[in-house]
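Sat 14:20. Reprocessing the chain from the morning session after the first attempt stalled halfway. Input below, unchanged.
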Amino acid sequence: MQRSEKSYELDWVLINELAIGRAPSKLSDLQTIESKGIISILSLCSVSEAKPPKELEQMFYAKRVVLPDHKYKREINVDEINKALDVLSELLTKGPVLVHCLAAVERSPLICMAWLIRNKNLSMQEALDYLMQIHPGTSPLSSQIKILNSIRNDF
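Finished this time. Tokens:
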């Protein structure tokens, strides 16, 4: 089965509150997401990286905060993490949220880890271990983890 034919899967970081998955690419992905009770979607990748299905904004509250990944010439910074967390907080007031980047490997796990650190008082290592357990494939860059470690006390 080719990737484009693969059914959409998401993982709950916090059941019925916060989920993580790859970028939805077609209507059937959105229908699967909707069937799981997701109300809002936070995208962390640019439209040029992953063009969303045209029905996205009719079906969900949708926000986009473009964050750099390993392909960018620069690293993510604290302000960008905080902006993504602020938008996530806003979306969570409406109901369950899906956080995605292109492949759900670097950026979306990073933001979910930051959320767990800030709101559930997990250490960076606890958040990383938990994400790796519930979302196989989680692999934030060492530079991203270093930033989370350095800002732990700021949350």
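The domain at 3-154 is CATH 3.90.190.10 (Protein-Tyrosine Phosphatase; Chain A).
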